[in-house]
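User: structure tokens for PPM-type phosphatase domain-containing protein, please.
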Amino acid sequence: MGACFSSSAGDHQIPKVHQMQTVHEVGLCFESENIGKVGSLFSKVGAKGTNQDSAVLCQKYGMEDGVLGGVFDGHGVNGHEVSQIVKARLPGLLLSQMKLLADAHNSKKTLAMYNVVEKWKEATVSAFKAMDKEIKFTPNSDFKASGTTAVLVIKQGEDLVIANLGDSRAVLGTVTNHGIVALPLTIDHKPSVADEAERIKQCNGRVLALAKEPHILRLWLPFEDVPGLAMTRALGDFQLKSHGVIPVPEILHHRISPADQFVVLATDGVWDVLSNERVMSIASSVENKEGVAEAIVHAATAEWKTKYPNATIDDCTVVYLSLKDA
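Assistant: Done. Predicted tokens:
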């Protein structure tokens, strides 16, 4: 798989070495100064206690100059466990699914005759479904009301494949005559999205806001006022899987242009207080790639204190992927 750098609990730029399953062998995700060649990642725990966010950034992923970045925002009592499982397993599962597709066409050379981007899309959907099954059958666990978001960016040559479910987000920074512009690469999967809400209702789930939070729509079981999930797609959350919550990501392909500069992935702790444009501005103003993710996270936590002084600061996690000299 190549080198993988990951982040989770507390304030972390590059944490300890850990093992990750790959297609061919168990490799190592380790800390290295070379992370600055492709970008950076940083996670800061909020005021709720345990950091339920996690993130990963892998070099030489799928090809020599390939990169994978991902952020995962857990929720529910055991959400931190779910996000950690996904961080550790999803990159390897995705490569495994690509290998299965290659084997189905007898060789990678044969696979190259087909649209490789479409194969990445197909493999990504399969990997997310397989990941959800792994979470469900994790021994000694209870994830019926716990889960995680997941947003991935996969760089293969000049192609980006973006996969998203939940309300974490990916945004592209691209240069125009007016400076850096934010181009959203994902759509937040929230009950306020008409198509998403309709699927929940068709599966007998309920979409309602609490009286104290009239601006936040949540998902509820048909005859019980639980769990109040504020998103419509997730890994885990098994009590809602029969009521419209799905583990199927939305996939986007983007061909990198000379104007494209970087991609920022972040959990909603960042996007709840910083606009896409503000994040792009911060990312473009930091000279050292290794410091971009940390700068965005610190800006977000400062904004929480200013904008919502009486609120509980959420966990904030960022992956920054440079598209220049990556």
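User: Anything notable?

Assistant: Residues 39-187+234-322 form a domain with the Phosphatase 2c; domain 1 fold (CATH 3.60.40.10).
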